[in-house]
Design brief:
Layout: H1 5-12, E1 25-31, E2 36-45, E3 48-57, H2 60-73, H3 78-82, H4 86-92, H5 101-121, H6 127-130, E4 138-139, E5 142-143
Antiparallel strand pairs: 1-2, 2-3, 4-5
Helix pairs in contact: 1-2, 2-5, 4-5
Length: 147
């Protein structure tokens, strides 16, 4: 399985790693069966994500997609962050092997989960704004979240 230079760069030099102790929203997605668990922390000021960090347990592709996703939403409005797709994360990394597509899906879902938590803390029902958040669900060892 070959990774692009960008994936390898984000794996060797991950951006925005760690916790935000004063985070306005925290989202965690993943599944222990696949071993990829992502936790995203966001800081929001006037509707803009001013800081974002992550903690990821999983494979190299999970780290790379988490790192790239944080780079893509930092400084963006919440609305723009919610538009980020797993496909955009993969394109920004110059692609992922098919068996690692689920990592980009988890990165997208972790952002949505953090934004949903932010809205919940503001007393706003996140469902109409964020949509459904799905964790990685495995059956027989195959990831169905990439479907």
């Amino acid at each position: 399985m070959a990774y692009s230079e960008k994936v390898m760069d984000h794996l060797a030099n991950p951006r925005n790693v760690g916790e935000l102790p004063d985070a306005d929203g925290i989202g965690e997605v993943g599944n222990a069966k696949c071993g990829d668990i992502m936790k995203m922390y966001i800081k929001v000021n006037d509707g803009v994500i001013t800081d974002v960090t992550f903690k990821t347990f999983g494979c190299g592709a999970a780290f790379a997609t988490s790192s790239m996703a944080t780079e893509l939403i930092k400084g963006k409005t919440i609305e723009d962050a919610l538009k980020l797709t797993n496909q955009a994360v993969m394109e920004a990394l110059d692609g992922l092997p098919p068996v690692k597509v689920h990592c980009s899906v988890l990165a997208e879902q972790a952002i949505k989960a953090a934004v949903a938590d932010y809205y919940t803390r503001q007393g706003i029902d996140p469902t109409p704004l964020v949509g459904k958040i799905s964790d990685c669900d495995h059956e027989e060892g195959h990831c169905s979240c990439s479907l």
